[in-house]
Write a structure and sequence with these properties.
heterodimer, A: about 575 residues, alpha/beta, TIM Barrel, ten-stranded parallel sheet, globular, B: about 260 residues, mainly beta, 14-stranded mixed sheet, 1 helix, 18 strands, elongated
């Protein structure tokens, strides 16, 4: 039995409605409890800001795509080198660091739970292996269904039950957590050498449209009672004028769930462009946020970009090809059999480029114009918009108008007319930031019931104590202190153990991997469906019996079971 | 001032020594420097007999001379900015990394990565050089950006890859893909070469010997006399596969 007692903590816990109260937190065996004995180890938080452990609801840190990014950029491994020290492994890399590099840096920033944004089911084993080497965070993997042949066949037949059965079987086989749609239909069309221009175009050879895929998958998701909603990367990412597609997509979303959103739209910054060419591109964040403000069933995340060098990696193969034609730099493209594809290229976001400046402004506009912080979460689509180590700077920008003004002064002169950022006065408070970096994520991912994102009795003891005194720091003026404070926690506590102290890792981690097993009725299970088995054996390069991930790949797997169809 | 470093006989002569401390500027403050032999930290005097002749008030007057078996010493002259280094025998990998000034003379052969990401200064190699002579780091978009590398013998593959500035002059032949991904600067190969200048963006390359396996993605402009080399050569533009605007002058082409 291990006990820990955190005293004098200035707690902000939005899920329980606590905003800056000085409290003590008692921890026993990894869970928060009412009280502990007097033998418990004591941590004096000295009235510093104490939040539930950070949760990143969309990041790319593990799996084949990330690893191929590492292959492609040996030069990145010259940055961020740290030596082996105590319990810490060697690390290297800046925008595609080693798995331990990712884990340690997230831990130093107080993050304890991550959702890998896109895992191709066929390549799930690699992702789970890297999860075990990302030891300080609990992991979940969104599973890609955007070009899944069985799903598209079921969608064409307008059979929601069958769609749900395919999803349930695949999630269980891949040990995945939720449904990710990346440019639905578009990546599959690209596999046939074609491209889609909107959500009502027909995917060649499958006679379905992206709109049908999205709406059917949303209903299948609710039928399966999955903890997370459909996680959507809209069509036409990164194309000037694509905000129309985004608005059309959002209009399709019904409100089907009381506990959480019905659609999670990811990195919306990349989907909020007006104009028609790169020359006249402008921000349409106002249009997007107006719709989101009126539709509580949608939650989005910022997809903020930050200036500097990084790597873009996504299952959206055609988009990466278009970007490659623009940059004429290295490029990788990959097709995953009957499931999806991917593309990777390095980019440098520059303040000299009007387009990049507008992208930077749009991310902030989205966050500042969304009235309810629970509906716009903070992330950079790591590493696509910027490596996650830039989160503290994003927090600083959201909390300080003065910081934004200083940054804006260095931007390309054409930015001001194309965006509304310069006129926005809103400055977020500590509570908003706590929502956007942990509570909102926990609610959106449906893991509040797993004890994540809050500090109530029974919750997992994932706690981040930042060296910030909220009563004496004025974030609007002293934004540097805010940025520095969020870069390095005083203590990061993971499941009741102090894992990181002043940015230094002090224990070997032991994370868990959450996955979902949705129980569907016997008669429509895919393993009993002769047609599904026949097509599987016909088209895949692996046998169906070899396809599911064995439990040995998840040494600390935590299965969330749902009773579907009831 | 002259600093002579004569390598001592080592029990394991193949163990590489990482000696980025050997640059003239460092010897202004004495000879007490640290290098690595394998994973062990050593002082210079453990590995070398050190002789110092004369004194110097500024680093440009310092000459470092390496004698004996120096073929496994890596990173000599890394970040060197002034003065001179003379290596009487062979030298190991990564000699003259990031060098920005001064001169390095190698009287024997140089191993791979000679003058990697060099910004200025001069490297003279009297023997042969290994692969990746005067290039950039793997994955990096800019290689050598200034200065001069002259090799009297031959070089290995990927000579002057990602060359972005400065001059590379090879008196002998090169291996496969010299000048690949060139961005600028000047590459002169007096001997033969195979598949030169793939994906070249800019800069100029002259090959006075025979080119084997000329890439088909170069557009022939004219055949003319190059007065400075006293030859008649085919002038190509390319690499047109990727909108390159480089210049490639080739005296003759042949197959294997």
């Amino acid at each position: 039995m291990t006990e820990l007692w955190v005293k004098n903590a200035c707690v902000i816990d939005p899920i329980r409605g606590i905003n800056g109260d000085i409290m003590d937190i008692a921890i026993r065996d990894g869970r928060i409890v009412e009280s502990v004995s007097d033998r418990a180890e004591v941590i004096d938080a000295e009235r510093c800001l104490t939040l539930p452990g950070g949760i990143d609801s969309h990041t790319h840190v593990s799996g084949t795509k990330v690893n191929f990014g590492r292959y492609m950029s040996p030069e990145d491994m010259r940055a961020g080198r740290t030596k082996r020290k105590g319990k810490m492994h060697v690390t290297s890399g800046y925008y595609v660091p080693t798995t331990f590099g990712n884990s340690y840096r997230y831990s130093a920033m107080g993050y304890t739970t991550l959702l890998e944004g896109a895992m191709a089911p066929l390549e799930a084993r690699h992702t789970h292996e890297e999860f075990t080497a990302t030891p300080h965070q609990d992991m979940m993997a969104n599973t890609l269904f955007d070009g899944n042949w069985a799903v598209m066949d079921a969608v064409r037949e307008k059979d929601i039950r069958k769609t749900a059965a395919v999803v349930a079987w695949t999630l269980k086989a891949a040990r995945g957590y939720g449904i990710k749609l990346t440019n639905p239909g578009g990546t599959e069309a690209w596999g046939w050498g074609e491209d889609l221009t909107g959500i009502h175009d027909t995917v060649p050879h499958f006679a379905v449209t992206p709109a049908e895929i999205i709406t059917t998958m949303i209903r299948a998701n609710e039928l399966l009672k999955l903890p997370h909603s459909v996680h959507l990367h809209c069509n036409n990412l990164g194309k000037p004028g694509n905000y129309q597609t985004t608005l059309e997509t959002f209009e399709l979303v019904p409100d089907l769930n009381d506990a959480r959103q019905t659609l999670y739209a990811t990195h919306v910054q990349f989907h909020a462009y007006g104009g028609g060419t790169w020359k006249n591109i402008c921000s349409k964040a106002e249009e997007i946020t107006r719709l989101v403000n009126s539709k509580p069933q949608i939650v989005m995340d910022m997809g903020q970009i930050m200036f500097g060098r990084t790597m873009t990696m996504t299952a959206d193969g055609p988009m990466e090809f278009n970007l490659h034609c623009l940059h004429n730099n290295k490029w990788s493209n990959h097709d995953v059999e009957l499931e999806t594809g991917s593309g990777i290229i390095p980019v440098t976001y520059s303040k000299k480029s009007t387009v990049n400046c507008i992208m930077w402004a749009i991310g902030l506009e989205l966050a500042l114009l969304t009235k309810n912080p629970w509906q716009c979460l903070l992330e950079t689509d790591n590493p696509n918009g910027a490596p996650f180590v830039k989160y503290p700077e994003v927090i600083g920008l959201l909390m300080s108008k003065r910081y934004r003004d200083e940054e804006c002064a260095a931007l390309h002169a054409g930015t001001e007319q194309k965006t509304s950022l310069y006129a926005l006065e809103r400055e977020m408070d500590w509570h908003d930031i706590a929502v956007m970096t942990r509570a909102g994520q926990a609610k959106a991912l449906g893991i509040v019931s797993q004890g994540k994102g809050h500090l109530g009795v029974g919750a997992e003891a994932d706690i981040a104590i930042y060296p910030i005194r909220t009563d004496s720091v004025d974030p609007a003026r002293e934004y540097r202190k805010v940025v520095e404070g969020f870069q390095k926690t005083r203590y990061t506590i993971k499941r009741g153990r102090v894992v990181s102290r002043d940015g230094e890792i002090i224990v070997d981690g032991a994370n868990a991997t959450f996955w979902v097993d949705a129980k569907v009725p016997e008669d429509i299970r895919m393993e009993n469906d002769p047609e599904f088995i026949k097509r599987f054996e016909q088209f895949y390069t692996v046998r169906m019996s070899n396809y599911p991930v064995q439990d040995v790949y998840l040494p600390r797997g935590r299965c969330i079971e749902t009773e579907a169809f009831t | 001032m002259r600093v002579i470093l004569e390598s001592k006989v080592r029990s394991k002569p193949n163990l590489p020594i990482e000696a980025e401390a050997i640059i003239p500027r460092n010897f202004l403050k004495g000879t007490d420097h640290v290098v690595f032999e394998g994973n062990k930290e050593r002082t210079l005097s453990e590995l070398f007999w050190i002789f110092v002749e004369g004194t110097a008030v500024s680093p440009e007057n310092i000459e470092v001379i390496l004698k004996g078996d120096t073929s496994r010493i890596k990173r000599v002259g890394e970040y060197m900015d002034t003065g001179s280094i003379v290596i009487e025998g062979d030298i190991g990998m990564h000699c003259g990394n990031f060098m920005s000034g001064g001169t390095i003379e190698i009287r024997g052969n140089a191993d791979a990565w000679l003058g990697r990401e060099m910004r200025g200064g001069t490297i003279l190699c009297r023997g042969n050089a290994g692969h990746y002579c005067a290039t950039g780091y793997r994955g990096e978009k800019k290689g050598m950006q200034g200065g001069k590398v002259e090799v009297s013998g031959n070089t290995g593959d990927f000579c002057a890859e990602y060359l972005a500035g400065g001059t590379v002059h090879i008196h002998g032949s090169t291996g496969d893909f010299p000048g690949a991904e060139m961005r600028g600067g000047e590459l002169i190969i007096e001997g033969d070469a195979t598949r030169p200048c793939g994906n070249m963006k800019n800069g100029s390359c002259v090959i006075l010997g025979t080119v084997h396996d000329m890439l088909p993605t170069f557009e022939k402009i004219e055949r003319r006399v190059l007065p400075e080399w006293k030859i008649t050569a085919d002038v190509y533009k390319g690499d047109v596969a990727n909108r390159g605007k480089g210049n490639l002058c080739v005296r003759s082409t042949g197959l294997y």
